Amino acid sequence: MKTKTGIQLSIMMLLEYFIWGAWYVTMGTYMGEHLHSSGLQIGAAYSALAIATIISPFFVGLIADRYFAAQKIMGLLHLVGAGLLFMATKINDNTAFYWVILLYSLLYMPTIALSNSVAFHQMDEPGKQFPWIRVFGTLGWIIAGLLIGFLEWEKTYNTFYIAAAISAVLGLYSFVLPDTPPKGNSADASASKALGTDAFVLFKDKPYLIFLIAAILVCIPLSFYYGFANPFLNEIGLHNAAGKMILGQVSEAVFILAIPFLFTNIGVKNMLLLGMTAWILRYICFAYGNTDINTWMLYAGIILHGVCYDFFFVTGYMYTEKKAGEKIKNAAQGLFTFATYGVGMFIGTWFSGFIVDQHIIANGHDWKSIWFVPAMIAAAVLVYFILFFREKKEIPQAT
Asked: What is the DSSP secondary-structure string of 195-262?
């Protein structure tokens, strides 16, 4: 891969994830401030991305891959998405806001797969080159959080304005990216292929099935963090909450470096157990944290994101690939994403919104009681996993 191409792809990834980080983290705070949204309404808005995760593989697999150059359809989606993000700031009704966010999510989520397709198509050694390109996505998310926090924009329309502006920039920029032509009729396109049904053979493997159920359930605690951590930190008075939350992405980038070593040396079960234990600790930290003597607990809860995410979800992707083998690994990764960020997050976003609404008090929310709920769910999943998950250190492929 040429240096020029690498720079182009790095900029693409930085912009792609800057957009997501700019509006997604603080949307719950924005909705509470401007739309006076209930917890359930905030949870519903976050569920839009889960719905899009379920639907987007069909769009990419059945339409985009077959008939359009990936960079061109990605550009068009981002341009239309920019208009929708701008439109979101003009809406004062929760129902209308939900539909705009849902429509935007349906346009944005396919661009994740499309940007990966553009990147992989240009690489001669994807295994070595892609991580160095993808890390610019994490950098983009971090820059978005730092900028919004520094400028104190998280309660304002500006989060959507800047996301819309960068979406428009990426939309135009996409048309000058290296060509990634459509696969045409040579693409193996079907609804079952898009869903990853080839990987259903994994359901016959008891350890993997137990793991997948745990992964879906862990998405419930994850939803509490994505939807309500920023509103929580703002409500209790933590200054520059969005800027401080990027410590979670920093820790994610740091801990991911340890994953290959630990995966080999301590085994998949211990990795997953560490990840689930971190979920419990995170929410205990949030439950007892405050902006007085226990501020350190708020920081600990944020920084634990790296362990929570990497040791469970990144390890989960690696475990899935080991189980699937070369023949069905792409289908298996698609199935894992569908089950977690689709089905699991859909359940979690609605459930977390419901729980938050049950703990409204005179001056805000009873956050201590709220955070105990995902902590207990994570603890229950941990016990379930310890009791039922049995996997060899040398992971056999499912047959």
From this structure: HTGGGGGGGGSHHHHHHHHHHHHHHHHHHHHHHHHHHHHHHTT-TTHHHHHHHHHHHHHHHGGGHHHH
SS3 13: helix
Using DSSP, how many helices (H) and how many strands (E) does the chain show?
18, 2
Using a pLDDT cut of 70, give the percent of the chain over it.
92
Q: Rounded to two decimals, what is the model's pTM?
A: 0.88
Residues 312-348 pLDDT 10s: 888 888 888 788 876 777 678 778 888 898 999 999 9
Coil, helix or strand at residue 360 = strand
Over the chain, what is the mean pLDDT?
88
Which is more confidently placed, 17 or 57?
17
- Collapsed DSSP state (helix, strand, coil) of residue 291: coil
Helix axes 206-235, 367-388, angle to 10 degrees: 170
Residues listed for the chain: 399
Q: Which residues pair with 360 in a beta bridge?
A: 365
Domain 1-183 in CATH 1.20.1250.20: yes
Say whether pLDDT at 56 is over 90.
no
Retrieve residue 162's tokens. 């800047």
CATH topology for 195-399 is Growth Hormone; Chain: A; (1.20.1250)
Residues forming a β-bridge with 361 = 364
Round to whole Å and give the CA distance between 64 and 3.
Answer: 27
Domain boundaries, the chain: 1-183, 195-399
Distance (Å, whole) CA 323 – CA 399: 9
Question: Which DSSP category does 63 fall into?
Answer: I
Token duo for residue 83: 């208009």
Q: Do 81 and 104 touch, CB atoms closer than 8 A?
A: yes
- What is the per-residue pLDDT across 219-238, written as a single tens digit (0 to 9) for each? 999 999 999 999 999 999 99
Instruction: Please state the rounded mean pLDDT for residues 369-396.
Output: 88
Residue 179 CA, distance from chain mean position = 27
Domains 1-183 and 195-399 equal at CATH topology level = yes
